[in-house]
């Protein structure tokens, strides 16, 4: 599945990058270079802040461009006339269902997205901020994106408050520069607070969905947890990867490829 051509999603993606670029501009130009000119903390904050921006961008791009777990379409038209026959008993027993829009069988927990116009494995929801579905293959990167946005928002708020509490005595104090710095600082403070609270709410919802093994679609359908007795760490590792938990923080491919490469339509249809 390629890039989703959804106008709302494209606008949200552009707004996301504009907000991140503006935050980087204000922190670097008006906070660090204006209030930490003679401090050794200036290069540290520049490197640390831009490292978070880089990780955020990589996680977001992967969440946008990576296939969320699209169920492949059959090469030939499937005859569903024998759907309830004995021949299909095993398939029904395994909770495979039929998507009348895609005209194909789909595995358990797969749902049809009306925007992507395809069935997505373990679909949680379609997110306009990544212009893609949050599914089996990209939920890790979506969660990382939310985490980095929270970190960036908190870091921005910290630097703004620090610049107000500990002003630079040797820095330029001309009226135009002081007013510009104050205006940009207030705008960034509002942006960080609003986006930070919004993203924290989504991140908490995502963590609940992972740890209780219930996607947003399943919650709406009131199906309950899919595997209620599975350990929380095992559920988290299923999304973030089987490697060391420290690697969960980085937007790199650590998923269990063997699990994800199982053919979806290996049975005869």
Which helices and strands, and how do they pair?
Layout: H1 7-35, H2 41-65, H3 89-93, E1 97-99, E2 104-106, E3 111-113, E4 118-120, E5 125-127, E6 132-134, H4 139-165, H5 175-211, H6 216-220, H7 232-240, H8 257-260
Antiparallel strand pairs: 1-2, 3-4, 5-6
Helix pairs in contact: 1-2, 1-4, 1-5, 2-4, 4-5
Question: Could you explain how this protein is built, in words?
Answer:
The protein is mainly alpha-helical. The chain contains 8 helices and 6 strands. It has helices at residues 7-35, 41-65, 89-93, 139-165, 175-211, 216-220, 232-240, 257-260, and strands spanning 97-99, 104-106, 111-113, 118-120, 125-127, 132-134. It has a two-stranded antiparallel ribbon. A two-stranded antiparallel ribbon has the order 3-4. The chain has a two-stranded antiparallel ribbon with strand order 5-6. A hairpin with a 4-residue loop joins strand 1 (97-99) and strand 2. Helix 1 runs parallel beside helix 4 (139-165), helix 1 packs across helix 5 (175-211) and helix 2 (41-65) runs antiparallel to helix 4. The radius of gyration is 23 Å and the shape is elongated. It starts with 6 loop residues before the first helix and ends in a 9-residue tail after the last helix. Residues 255-269 have low confidence and may be disordered. It is a multi-pass membrane protein. Its EC number is 2.3.1.225. Its main location: membrane. It catalyses: L-cysteinyl-[protein] + hexadecanoyl-CoA = S-hexadecanoyl-L-cysteinyl-[protein] + CoA.
């Amino acid at each position: 599945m390629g890039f989703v051509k959804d106008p709302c999603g494209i606008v949200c993606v552009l707004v996301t990058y504009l907000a991140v670029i503006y935050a980087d501009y204000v922190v670097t130009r008006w906070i660090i270079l204006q209030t930490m000119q003679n401090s050794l903390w200036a290069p540290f904050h520049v490197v640390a802040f831009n490292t978070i921006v880089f990780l955020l961008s990589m996680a977001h791009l992967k969440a946008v461009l990576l296939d969320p777990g699209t169920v492949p379409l059959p090469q030939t038209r499937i005859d569903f006339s024998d759907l309830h026959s004995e021949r299909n008993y095993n398939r029904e027993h395994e909770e495979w269902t039929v998507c009348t829009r895609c005209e194909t069988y789909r595995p358990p927990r797969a749902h049809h997205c009306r925007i992507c116009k395809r069935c997505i494995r373990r679909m949680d929801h379609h997110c306009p901020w990544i212009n893609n579905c949050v599914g089996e293959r990209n939920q890790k990167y979506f969660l990382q994106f939310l985490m980095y946005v929270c970190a960036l928002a908190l870091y921005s708020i910290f630097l703004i408050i620090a610049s107000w509490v500990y002003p630079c005595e040797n820095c330029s104090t001309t009226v135009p520069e002081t007013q510009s710095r104050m205006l940009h600082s207030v705008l960034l403070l509002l942006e960080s607070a609003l986006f930070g609270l919004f993203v924290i709410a989504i991140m908490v919802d995502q963590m609940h969905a992972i740890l209780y093994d219930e996607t947003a679609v399943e919650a709406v359908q009131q199906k309950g947890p899919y595997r209620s007795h599975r350990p929380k760490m095992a559920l988290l590792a299923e999304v973030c990867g089987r490697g060391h938990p420290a690697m969960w923080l980085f937007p790199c491919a650590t998923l269990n490829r063997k699990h994800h490469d199982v053919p979806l339509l290996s049975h005869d249809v």
